[in-house]
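Quick start: read one record
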Amino acid sequence: MQLSSNLQRFHNRTTYYCWVGVFFLLIGGFIALLYIATLQIDYLWAWYRIPQYFVYQENIEIRAEIEGEVETITMNGDQAVVVVVGSDGQETYTVPSEDIRVDEGDMIYAGDVLATYKEWRPGILLQGLGTTLKASVYAIVFGIVLGLIGGIARISPNPALKWSAITYIEIVRGSPLLVQLLIWYFVIGTMVNTILANYKLGQISAMGYGIAALSFFVGAYVTEIVRAGIQSIHRGQIEASRSLGMSYAQSMRYVILPQAMRRILPPLAGQFISLIKDSSLLGVIAVRELTKATREVVTTSLQAFELYFVCAILYLVLTFTLSMLTQYLERRLAS
């Protein structure tokens, strides 16, 4: 009996590793086919150029603002103080001492370079990734708030609240996100910014309208998820909490919602992962998120293969991280 059990475990382990090998063979075959296809179109891979689109060193120039003579240059460690005296007065510049382009007594004109230094700057892909992450986080937070309010209103006996939630859900879920983005930016944005301008108030940026569109879009789906999660809790739970003297709001806060959250967390994670990918549509309203930044770099560098692969990998990193975070929260709530 023990020998049969050991043989079965050995057979299962062997079969498992065989299928693992098949998986890696499939991945390797796909990569090989892709490489062969690029050879047919005579494409030259240039992965070494990709890092500059994440971070790069920019050459910063410090220029004179007046015309005059360099009176003194005082060294102070890594810094130097350059004093320029002219007919318009005196100017003092604190510059890095590593690359000073003038000497004492030099005559300079406005716009002449006094010194240069290099500084690390985020590249266009890193900026686009930050914009995508920022828009997604804000939209997720506002979407959760809208979803919780809408979900409770959806099951409310008050017809005004219930019908308002139903109308919101049907309108948002019944139209494409792209159309909603265009309406938020070109219609609502024009009206709101015009009103703000008339009252001499600040303008709302395209990023703000993009986050609003994403929030309202995901909020409609979160509303239905919350509604389903609340209704999945047995009605006896509310009746029991009300019999203990709790109000309807207290029953929702302390009894129903904590239990519903455990059930709605997986579909919420799926919705938020879709939101991160949907944020790629923000480019149509001139928001330089990750996809738009990638398109701009492709236009200038003609490295379509490498850049689109990198773009896909960055989205995968964001969505996979959110998936892992959700699994961690599920385990915490289950314990």
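The beta strands are 55-63, 68-76, 79-86, 89-96, 107-108, 113-122.
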